[in-house]
Structure formats: structure tokens, C-alpha cells
Design goal:
Blueprint lengths: L2 E3 L6 E5 L5 E5 L9 E2 L8 E3 L33 H13 L4 H14 L7 H4 L14
Antiparallel strand pairs: 1-2, 1-5, 2-3, 3-4
């Protein structure tokens, strides 16, 4: 059985099931129970060690604790207001994730998006651009 990751689906594993079909599922404890067929291309998938899928319930991951990430984790701080922290914490709870995992997944998903693709909602309330220089008569 093979395991893959994709920038298109951050926070998800893509792997083969017992019949060899590609499926994707949340990269979290018990995520295999929520697997769905993977219909994307195989070219953009990055094959990774099957042991990384441990803990998700994927049968190809074997048993035992999931290994630590291939690259060492580092602390990353961010300044935020108490209101922002409350909103983020609530959203993480809604997604049944620790706040740090929710923040990491959200930041990774945003970083994986191609440049130039922006969320129209982010600019919805922005003031319209004002012309520069003198207006022509």
C-alpha cells in the first residue's frame, strides 16, 4: 500500500486502499473512517513513508504511534488580539482540532494556494481604489 500527500489537499492523506484504489482522508486520528475516493491526478502526488499514516486508521500505516514529522517542528509566534484568539479557538473546536493544529492546517492551506488567487470575501469591504494624480478635464 502506498501513501501520498498533495499541496492541493493539505491536512489530508491520499493512499491506496486494500483493493488498490486511491482514496483521501483527514490526516488525523481516525481519519480513515471519513475516506472518500480520490479523483485527482497522480502526477502531483508526493509519495511519503507509509508509517506517516499511522494513527489515522489507514491499514497500510501499520500499528503504533505516528512518527514525528520528517522535519523538526519549531515554535512560531504570532501576535493576536484576545478577540482573534477567541474566534480561532472556537473555529478549531468546531473542527474538533487543537487550536495549534487548526492554525497550522489553515496556514499551510493558504500557503499552498497559487498566488493571484484571492478570496473575494477578504476584499469585499475594502474601499475602492482612488485614482492617483490630477483628474483630466
Amino acid at each position: 500500500m502506498k501513501l501520498y500527500r498533495s499541496a492541493e489537499y493539505p491536512g489530508q492523506w491520499i493512499g491506496t486502499d486494500a483493493e488498490g484504489a486511491l482514496v483521501r482522508w483527514p490526516a488525523e486520528r481516525g481519519g480513515w473512517q471519513r475516506r472518500t475516493p480520490y479523483t485527482g491526478g497522480k502526477r502531483q502526488l508526493e509519495e511519503v513513508s507509509p508509517v506517516l499514516g499511522r494513527g489515522s486508521g489507514w491499514p497500510g500505516g501499520g500499528t503504533g504511534r505516528p512518527p514525528r514529522s520528517a522535519s523538526p517542528a519549531r515554535m512560531f509566534g504570532i501576535r493576536a488580539t484576545l478577540d482573534e484568539i477567541a474566534v480561532w479557538t472556537k473555529r478549531a473546536e468546531e473542527d474538533a482540532k487543537p487550536a495549534s493544529a487548526w492554525a497550522r492546517d489553515t496556514l499551510n492551506a493558504e500557503a499552498a494556494r497559487p498566488r493571484g488567487h484571492h478570496d473575494a470575501r477578504a476584499h469585499h469591504d475594502a474601499e475602492p481604489a482612488r485614482p492617483r494624480g490630477k483628474a483630466k478635464p
